[in-house]
């Protein structure tokens, strides 16, 4: 069993619903959705574009999937999760855009977000005590030879190569795709997510996701709001 700390809007948020329609699954309920056609893209083609993003659920990675450390149970993880959310204030991303990251499409910040990067780094360090280190076999499966020396060091130390100064926030919308498919799908997603790309985007909560067995869909185990502003002011 693996867990992950992901950013997602609340279950009833319009972005969560819109992304669930595109991916074909609600990560909160685990419910599969019948994917409609989008701007000329037939439903059967969309299903082939969203395999892994559908399994992982709509999210932005904050702490990548991990197993619990020896001697750590779910209760300790839940307490650590609650504590982190309680001591962390909400904030906003200036704006999001649909863009290309490598060979896949995702919702991305339009500019560097230093508060978001610091937030993610704090989370990685906070949950280090409950996360089991990767085994050598797990490290090899992640192809460390294809990483930079710094990324490979982060993989060993933190269980994921794209942390700290390598962190790039993204909310994945497609599999890795060939260039021709990317250029065809990008305008469809830009149109579909337009209501969420022209305004500040709040980061107000976190979700603890769970993968009950290898290859199973990730679902939301619990969702917590970050510390309310009123609490911060009175502290």
Describe the structure.
With 235 residues, this protein is of the alpha+beta class. It has a single domain, classed as Cyclic Phosphodiesterase, Chain: A (Alpha-Beta Complex). It contains nine helices and nine strands. The strands form three sheets. A four-stranded antiparallel β-sheet has the order 2-1-8-9, with helices on one face. The protein has a three-stranded antiparallel β-sheet with strand order 4-5-6, with helices on one face. A hairpin with a 7-residue loop joins strand 8 and strand 9. The chain is globular, with a radius of gyration of 18 Å. The termini are far apart.
What are the main properties of this structure?
235 residues; alpha+beta; Cyclic Phosphodiesterase, Chain: A; 4-stranded antiparallel beta sheet; 3-stranded antiparallel beta sheet; 9 helices; 36% helix; DUF1045; Phosphonate metabolism protein
């Amino acid at each position: 069993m693996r867990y992950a700390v992901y950013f997602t809007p609340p279950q009833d948020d319009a972005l969560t619903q819109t992304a669930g329609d595109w991916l074909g699954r609600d990560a909160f309920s685990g419910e599969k959705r019948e994917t409609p056609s989008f701007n000329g893209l037939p439903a059967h083609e969309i299903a082939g574009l969203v395999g892994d993003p559908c399994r992982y659920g709509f999210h932005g990675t904050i702490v990548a999937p991990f197993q619990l450390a020896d001697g750590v149970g779910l209760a300790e993880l839940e307490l650590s999760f609650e504590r982190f959310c309680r001591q962390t204030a909400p904030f906003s991303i200036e704006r999001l855009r649909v863009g290309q990251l490598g060979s896949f499409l995702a919702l991305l910040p339009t500019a560097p977000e230093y508060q978001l990067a610091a937030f993610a780094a704090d989370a990685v360090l906070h949950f280090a005590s409950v996360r089991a280190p990767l085994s050598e076999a797990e490290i090899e499966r992640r192809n460390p030879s294809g990483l930079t020396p710094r990324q490979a060091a982060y993989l060993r130390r933190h269980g994921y190569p794209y942390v700290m100064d390598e962190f790039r926030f993204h909310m994945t919308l497609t599999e890795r795709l060939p260039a021709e498919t990317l250029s065809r799908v990008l305008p469809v997603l830009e149109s579909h997510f337009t209501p969420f790309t022209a305004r500040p985007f709040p980061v107000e909560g976190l979700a603890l996701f769970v993968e009950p067995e290898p290859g199973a869909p990730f679902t939301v185990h619990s969702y917590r709001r970050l510390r309310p502003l009123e609490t911060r002011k009175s502290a």
